[in-house]
C-alpha cells in the first residue's frame, strides 16, 4: 500500500505542520490523525526532535478513538520510557484502560494521581467521563457539580454539565450552565443559540420571549447562523399565535416572523443560486484531501 | 562643558569594554540555566486555585453580566453578595501569615534566589573592579555632578576629572541592567537572568498566584459587585438586527467549512 506521502506528494514537514494545526484547532478527525501520525512516527521519528513526544500523545488519543490499541500501546510505551513519573502520561494510561473498558483499573490510576496532586483537573475530569461512559448520568452530574464548585472557571466542564442536564431534560439547570458560558464568551454566537433553544424547549411566554431575543443576538453576532434564523421565526410565530398576548405584542411578533421568513427566502433563493452556479462551473472538487 | 576632552587608548575599547559586555552577558545566561536547574516546583494549594477562580467569575459577572437575563444576573449577585448567605460574606479563609524566617519553603527559595543572583553580581563586580582598575573606560553622554565621582570613579583619584568619565565597575553595572532586553530576546520572556524583575518581586512581597489575604480580596470584590447594575444588552436587539438585511456572504458555498 502506497504511503500517504507518496499518494499526496507531501513531505514530512508538511505532515508535521498539519498535525500541529489540528492540535491547535482541537480537531477531532481521528482517522486522519492516525493515518498521518502513524506514518510520521514510523518513518520520520528521528527528524522530529522534541516534537515527537507531543505527536505521540496526539496520535495515541486518536488511536484510542479508532480502537487501534496496538498503535496506542506503542505510543504509550515510548512516552512512559521517556517520562516515567509524569502525571500527564499516567492520565494517558488511564485513558487507554478506559478505551478497553477496564474502568475500575482506570479509576485506580486516576485516584493515585489525585492523591499526589489534588489540583490535577485532568484526572478528575476523566473520572467523570468514566461515569458518563458507564451511563451513570446522575452520579456524573453530581460529581461534575462538586468539581465545578471548586473549579468555577472551567468552561469545558460547564458545557459538559449543560449537555448532561439537557439529556436529563432538566432545562432550567442547563440554562444556568449556558448562562455561565455566555458570560465568559459574550461574542460566541453558538452559546447564545444553544441557550435560546433551551429556553424555547422550556416553553412558557417569558421563556419564548427570551428565546426570541437570544436567537436575534446569535444572528447579530453571526449573520450566517441559519439555525438561529429559523429559531427566530419559530419563536416569534409561536408568540404571535398564542391567544394570551396583547395586540401590540402580537403585531410586533408577526412583524419579526415576517422579516425572518423574508430573510430565509432570500438566503435560499439568491445564495443557493450562486452556489449552484459555482458547482456546475466545475468547482465541485476544489477541496483537497485535508 | 568643563573639563578637557580625553583621548582614550583604543586598546581600552578592545580589551576592556567589549570583554565586560561579554562577561556580563554570559554570566547572565549561565545564571538563567542554573536557576532553572535549582528551581523547585511551586505546589499549588487547592483552596487558592479555587478562590482565584471564584474571584475571576465574580469579575466576569460584573463585566459581562449584561449579556444574561436580569433574573439570572440577580440570582448570581445574590449568591455572592447576600448579607447572610452570600459567598463573600460567608466564607472567611484562615490566613496564615507567611513569616519568611520560619516558613521553610520560602526560606530555601530566598536563599536560592540570593545565591544565583546577588552572589555572582558581587563576585564579578569585585573582580572587575580589581582587574580593570586605575583607568577610565568611557564617558557617559550626560553631565554628572561631583557627588557621583567617588561612586563611578573607583580607584582614580583625580580631583579635576569630569564626573562623566566612569570606571569599569560602573560600566559593568550599566551592562547588567542594559542587557535585560537582550536576555528576553534570546531566552524568551520570563527568564531568570532578568535581575531587576527579581528585585521587584522581592520588594512587592510574596509573589504568589493569590494575594496573601483572600479575605481582603473578597471584601473588595463584594464592594465592587454591590454597585453594579444590570443594563441588559438585549433590550432592543430585534430592532438593531432588523435594521438591515442579513449578510449571507457565501453561506452555501463549497469552500465554506
From TrEMBL, chain A:
Lineage: superkingdom: Eukaryota
> What Pfam families does the annotation carry?
TPR_EMC2
Q: Name one GO cellular component term.
A: EMC complex
Q: How is it placed in the membrane, per its record? A: Peripheral membrane protein
Major localisation: endoplasmic reticulum
Q: What are the start and end residues of each TPR repeat?
A: 155-188
Where is the protein found, in the record's own terms? Endoplasmic reticulum membrane
**Keyword set for this entry?**
Endoplasmic reticulum, Membrane, Repeat, TPR repeat
Q: Which PROSITE patterns match?
A: TPR
What region holds the EMC2 TPR-like domain? 90-199
Question: What quaternary structure, including any partners, is listed in this protein's UniProt entry?
Answer: Component of the ER membrane protein complex (EMC).
Outline what the protein does.
Part of the endoplasmic reticulum membrane protein complex (EMC) that enables the energy-independent insertion into endoplasmic reticulum membranes of newly synthesized membrane proteins.
The family classification in the record reads: Belongs to the EMC2 family.
What protein name does the entry list?
A: ER membrane protein complex subunit 2
Q: Which organism is it from?
A: Poecilia latipinna (sailfin molly)
Automatic annotation (TrEMBL), chain B:
InterPro entries for the chain: EMC3, EMC3/TMCO1
Question: What processes in GO biological process is this protein linked to?
Answer: protein folding in endoplasmic reticulum
* Membrane-spanning parts: 12-34, 118-138
**Compartments, as annotated in UniProt:** Membrane
Gene Ontology CC annotations of this record: EMC complex
Superkingdom, according to UniProt? Eukaryota
Membrane topology reported for the UniProt record: Multi-pass membrane protein
UniProt keyword list: Membrane, Transmembrane, Transmembrane helix
Q: Which family does it belong to?
A: Belongs to the EMC3 family.
Quaternary state and partners of this protein?
Component of the ER membrane protein complex (EMC).
Q: Per its record, how is this protein called by name?
A: ER membrane protein complex subunit 3
Native organism:
Poecilia latipinna
Amino acid at each position: 500500500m502506497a504511503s500517504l506521502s507518496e499518494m499526496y506528494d507531501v513531505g514530512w514537514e508538511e505532515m508535521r505542520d498539519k498535525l500541529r494545526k489540528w492540535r491547535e484547532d482541537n480537531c477531532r478527525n481521528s482517522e486522519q490523525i492516525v493515518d498521518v501520525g502513524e506514518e510520521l512516527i514510523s518513518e520520520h521519528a528521528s527528524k522530529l526532535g522534541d516534537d515527537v513526544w507531543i505527536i505521540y500523545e496526539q496520535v495515541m488519543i486518536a488511536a484510542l478513538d479508532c480502537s487501534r490499541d496496538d498503535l496506542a500501546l506503542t505510543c504509550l510505551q515510548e512516552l512512559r520510557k521517556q517520562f516515567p513519573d509524569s502525571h500527564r502520561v499516567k492520565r494517558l494510561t488511564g485513558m487507554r484502560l478506559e478505551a478497553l473498558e477496564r474502568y475500575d483499573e482506570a479509576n485506580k490510576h486516576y485516584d493515585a494521581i489525585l492523591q499526589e496532586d489534588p489540583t490535577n483537573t485532568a484526572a478528575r475530569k476523566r473520572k467523570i467521563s468514566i461515569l458518563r461512559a458507564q451511563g451513570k448520568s446522575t452520579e456524573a452530574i453530581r460529581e461534575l457539580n462538586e468539581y465545578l464548585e471548586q473549579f468555577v472557571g472551567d468552561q469545558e466542564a460547564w458545557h459538559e454539565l449543560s449537555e448532561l442536564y439537557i439529556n436529563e431534560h432538566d432545562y432550567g439547570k442547563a440554562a444556568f450552565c449556558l448562562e455561565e458560558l455566555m458570560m465568559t464568551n459574550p461574542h460566541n454566537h453558538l452559546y447564545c443559540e444553544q441557550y435560546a433553544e433551551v429556553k424555547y424547549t422550556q416553553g412558557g411566554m417569558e421563556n419564548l420571549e427570551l428565546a426570541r431575543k437570544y436567537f436575534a443576538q446569535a444572528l447579530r453576532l453571526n449573520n450566517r447562523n441559519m439555525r438561529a434564523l429559523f429559531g427566530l421565526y419559530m419563536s416569534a410565530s409561536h408568540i404571535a399565535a398564542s391567544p394570551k398576548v396583547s395586540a401590540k405584542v402580537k403585531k410586533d411578533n408577526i412583524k419579526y416572523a415576517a422579516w425572518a421568513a423574508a430573510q430565509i427566502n432570500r438566503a435560499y433563493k439568491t445564495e443557493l443560486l450562486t452556489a449552484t452556479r459555482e458547482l456546475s462551473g466545475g468547482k465541485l472538487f476544489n477541496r483537497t484531501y485535508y | 562643558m568643563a573639563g578637557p576632552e580625553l583621548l582614550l587608548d583604543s586598546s581600552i575599547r578592545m580589551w576592556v569594554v567589549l570583554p565586560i559586555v561579554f562577561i556580563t552577558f554570559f554570566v547572565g545566561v549561565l545564571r538563567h540555566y542554573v536557576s532553572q536547574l535549582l528551581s523547585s516546583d511551586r505546589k499549588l494549594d487547592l483552596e487558592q486555585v479555587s478562590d482565584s477562580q471564584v474571584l475571576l467569575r465574580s469579575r466576569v459577572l460584573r463585566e459581562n453580566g449584561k449579556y444574561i437575563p436580569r433574573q439570572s444576573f440577580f440570582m448570581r449577585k445574590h449568591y455572592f453578595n447576600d448579607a447572610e448567605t452570600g459567598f463573600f460574606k460567608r466564607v472567611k479563609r484562615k490566613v496564615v501569615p507567611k513569616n519568611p524566617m520560619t516558613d521553610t519553603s520560602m526560606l530555601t527559595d530566598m536563599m536560592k534566589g540570593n545565591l544565583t543572583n546577588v552572589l555572582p553580581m558581587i563576585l564579578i563586580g569585585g573582580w572587575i573592579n580589581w582587574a580593570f582598575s586605575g583607568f577610565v573606560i568611557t564617558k557617559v553622554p550626560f553631565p554628572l555632578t561631583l557627588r557621583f565621582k567617588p561612586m563611578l570613579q573607583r580607584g582614580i583619584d583625580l580631583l579635576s576629572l569630569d564626573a562623566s568619565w566612569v570606571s569599569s565597575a560602573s560600566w559593568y553595572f550599566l551592562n547588567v541592567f542594559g542587557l535585560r532586553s537582550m536576555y528576553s530576546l534570546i531566552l524568551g520572556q520570563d527568564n531568570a537572568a532578568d535581575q531587576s524583575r527579581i528585585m521587584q518581586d522581592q520588594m512587592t512581597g510574596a509573589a504568589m498566584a493569590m494575594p496573601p489575604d483572600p479575605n481582603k480580596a473578597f471584601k473588595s470584590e463584594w464592594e465592587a459587585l454591590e454597585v453594579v447594575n444590570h443594563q441588559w444588552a438585549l433590550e432592543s436587539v430585534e430592532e438593531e438586527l432588523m435594521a438591515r438585511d442579513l449578510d449571507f456572504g457565501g453561506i452555501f458555498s463549497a469552500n465554506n467549512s
